[in-house]
């Protein structure tokens, strides 16, 4: 007979090793990663044996273990936990079993780790506590959903996350160092990378503690409908603002590269349109980005993300090498900026945060893993944030030490227009934005679908309508808005701070049961609010005083 549930430990996240920083060896048995992940992601190879097994009537205690197929109740923090079992009993099951950080032990083991059941939707008949029996149709539907779930390996997930981080923000890192000073800039970049790495993983940890399967679900679990609205707006605004920014960058880079490579193109009929900013934005976004946005699975973008990463390597290489070759008369010394902490310190935080924050699509990347576990997602997060920090640091130091106090928001604009390698880098930068834009479109679409169509079956018309609407709206705005700095500052100050430094630790405080663990989370929330308020005040005051040059569409 099934033993009574033991008392749950005071700290659920500690008992189930959700906060463990160590990475287990997932392949200690010598099997390949793909084989191991496939075996875990596909626990049932045929639907018929699964149905026949689950439809068996419970046995008596005399003939065998007693199975209870009703969903397990929630504990105090909303997570579904299976009871512990002894040598002669088997844990009751709720098919199919959830993904675990550890491989399940055999039935002869005395105790194995309690497992979390992800609560996909409270109205879903497959996960609702109101449904205590499993029909053949329910099992087939869930088996099909598992079979069709997007799957990618750790390397593909790393490419998607790294591409999401190393985007438009990396080119502004020299400007951030100009605002803060070089030593303060290096310190900020390292500390913010650590914070971002931690809060990205907190998103998944919070989902386990709350029994939710999405960022929105966690916020709704913690703060009700207000929480769902807050996270939906923050995610959507950050992603949609990124789409607008990427469109502006495409219009600011590629036409100038085309003219530099072929000056006579302005006199060629029809082809002269390629030198027009609006035409280039419309054609490239609709012909390159839009088809990629129509994919349902984010894992399909792995190859595009790989190409984008290669283009960013070219950009980094260009800034480092060409900066050293700049004539002395074109350089500017940093001067006292090497040691001095400047007044634009908080603006530098906003610029760096915009480059590092990718919380709005981190759960999509987690869910695209073949075996979505905390340990594997932690590996992806660590690799992505470390590589991104190194890339940002290399660009920031090279650009700022070369151009000093004259460093512009887009460091490529500091280089001469007749530099061939720099023009190639500009072209790569624009193309990189075209392949990164679909990642933001994925987030916008998923936020709307989860809020308005949650729990409903996939609808192709809605999928195409939402994708087309988001891409067209972002493209139209980017056609007529040319001030990239204002877009990045406002979206970065509001959404980046909210997603990166406020919401994840706020949910963790709500779900955590140990007060000493909430101290870093509380400090992170305070830091996020202070940075957001000061950055917005400085940005709007600059707009009111009309400081800086006014951007004009050309």
UniProtKB/TrEMBL annotation:
<dbReference type="GO" id="GO:0005783">
    <property type="term" value="C:endoplasmic reticulum"/>
</dbReference>
<feature type="domain" description="Amino acid transporter transmembrane">
    <location>
        <begin position="151"/>
        <end position="540"/>
    </location>
</feature>
<dbReference type="Pfam" id="PF01490">
    <property type="entry name" value="Aa_trans"/>
</dbReference>
<feature type="transmembrane region" description="Helical">
    <location>
        <begin position="460"/>
        <end position="481"/>
    </location>
</feature>
<dbReference type="GO" id="GO:0016020">
    <property type="term" value="C:membrane"/>
</dbReference>
<comment type="similarity">
    <text>Belongs to the amino acid/polyamine transporter 2 family.</text>
</comment>
<feature type="transmembrane region" description="Helical">
    <location>
        <begin position="270"/>
        <end position="295"/>
    </location>
</feature>
<feature type="transmembrane region" description="Helical">
    <location>
        <begin position="182"/>
        <end position="205"/>
    </location>
</feature>
<dbReference type="GO" id="GO:0015179">
    <property type="term" value="F:L-amino acid transmembrane transporter activity"/>
</dbReference>
<feature type="transmembrane region" description="Helical">
    <location>
        <begin position="521"/>
        <end position="540"/>
    </location>
</feature>
<keyword id="KW-0472">Membrane</keyword>
<keyword id="KW-0813">Transport</keyword>
<feature type="compositionally biased region" description="Polar residues">
    <location>
        <begin position="52"/>
        <end position="63"/>
    </location>
</feature>
<keyword id="KW-1133">Transmembrane helix</keyword>
<keyword id="KW-0812">Transmembrane</keyword>
<feature type="transmembrane region" description="Helical">
    <location>
        <begin position="226"/>
        <end position="250"/>
    </location>
</feature>
<feature type="transmembrane region" description="Helical">
    <location>
        <begin position="487"/>
        <end position="509"/>
    </location>
</feature>
<feature type="transmembrane region" description="Helical">
    <location>
        <begin position="386"/>
        <end position="404"/>
    </location>
</feature>
<feature type="region of interest" description="Disordered">
    <location>
        <begin position="1"/>
        <end position="81"/>
    </location>
</feature>
<feature type="transmembrane region" description="Helical">
    <location>
        <begin position="307"/>
        <end position="325"/>
    </location>
</feature>
<protein>
    <submittedName>
        <fullName>Vacuolar amino acid transporter 2</fullName>
    </submittedName>
</protein>
<feature type="transmembrane region" description="Helical">
    <location>
        <begin position="345"/>
        <end position="366"/>
    </location>
</feature>
<dbReference type="InterPro" id="IPR013057">
    <property type="entry name" value="AA_transpt_TM"/>
</dbReference>
<keyword id="KW-0029">Amino-acid transport</keyword>
């Amino acid at each position: 007979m099934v033993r009574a549930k033991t008392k749950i430990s005071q700290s659920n996240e500690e008992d189930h090793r959700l906060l463990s920083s160590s990475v287990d060896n997932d392949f200690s048995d010598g099997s390949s990663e793909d084989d191991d992940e496939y075996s875990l992601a596909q626990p049932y190879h045929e639907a018929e044996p699964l149905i026949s097994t689950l439809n068996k009537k419970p046995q008596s205690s005399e003939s065998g273990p007693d199975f209870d197929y009703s969903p397990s109740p929630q504990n105090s923090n909303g997570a579904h936990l299976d009871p512990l079992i002894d040598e002669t009993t088997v844990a009751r099951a709720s098919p199919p079993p959830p993904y675990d950080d550890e491989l399940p032990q055999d039935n002869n083991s005395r105790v194995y780790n309690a497992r979390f059941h992800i609560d996909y939707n409270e109205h879903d008949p497959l996960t609702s506590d109101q449904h205590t029996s499993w029909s053949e149709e329910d099992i087939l539907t869930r088996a099909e959903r598992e079979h069709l779930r997007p799957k990618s390996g750790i390397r593909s997930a790393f490419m998607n996350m790294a591409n999401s981080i190393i985007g438009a923000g990396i080119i502004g890192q020299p400007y951030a160092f100009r605002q803060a000073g070089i030593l303060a800039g290096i310190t900020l970049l390292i500390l913010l990378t650590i914070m971002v790495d931690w809060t990205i993983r907190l998103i998944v940890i919070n989902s386990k503690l709350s029994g939710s399967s999405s960022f929105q679900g966690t916020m709704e679990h913690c703060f009700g409908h207000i929480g769902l609205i807050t996270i939906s707006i923050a995610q959507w605004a950050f992603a949609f603002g990124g789409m607008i920014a990427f469109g502006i960058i495409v219009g600011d880079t590629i036409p100038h590269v085309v003219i530099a490579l072929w000056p006579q193109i302005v006199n060629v009929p029809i082809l002269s349109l390629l030198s027009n900013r609006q035409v280039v934005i419309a054609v490239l976004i609709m012909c390159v980005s839009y088809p990629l946005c129509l994919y349902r699975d984010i894992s399909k973008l792995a190859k595009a993300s790989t190409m984008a990463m290669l283009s960013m390597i070219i950009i980094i290489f260009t800034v480092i090498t060409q900066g050293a070759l700049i004539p002395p008369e074109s350089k500017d010394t940093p001067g006292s900026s090497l040691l001095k902490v400047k007044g634009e310190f908080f603006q530098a935080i906003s610029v760096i945060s915009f480059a590092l924050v990718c919380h709005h699509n981190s759960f999509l990347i987690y869910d695209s893993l073949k075996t979505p576990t905390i340990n594997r997602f932690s590996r992806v997060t660590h690799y992505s944030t470390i590589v991104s920090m190194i890339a940002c640091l290399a660009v920031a130091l090279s650009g700022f030490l070369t151009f000093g106090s004259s460093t512009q928001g887009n460091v490529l604009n500091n280089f001469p227009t007749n530099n061939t390698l720099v023009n190639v880098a500009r072209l790569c930068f624009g193309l990189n934005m075209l392949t990164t834009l679909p990642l933001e479109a994925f987030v916008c679409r998923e936020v709307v679908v989860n809020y308005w169509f949650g729990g409903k079956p996939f609808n192709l018309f809605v999928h195409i309508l939402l994708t087309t609407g988001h891409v067209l709206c972002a493209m139209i705005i980017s056609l007529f808005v040319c001030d990239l700095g204002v877009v990045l500052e406002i979206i970065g100050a509001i959404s980046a701070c909210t997603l990166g430094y406020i919401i994840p630790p706020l949910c963790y405080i709500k779900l955590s049961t140990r007060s000493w663990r909430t101290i870093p989370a509380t400090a992170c929330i305070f830091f996020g609010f202070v940075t957001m308020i000061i950055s917005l005040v400085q940005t709007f005051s600059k707009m009111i005083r009309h400081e800086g040059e006014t951007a004009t569409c050309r």
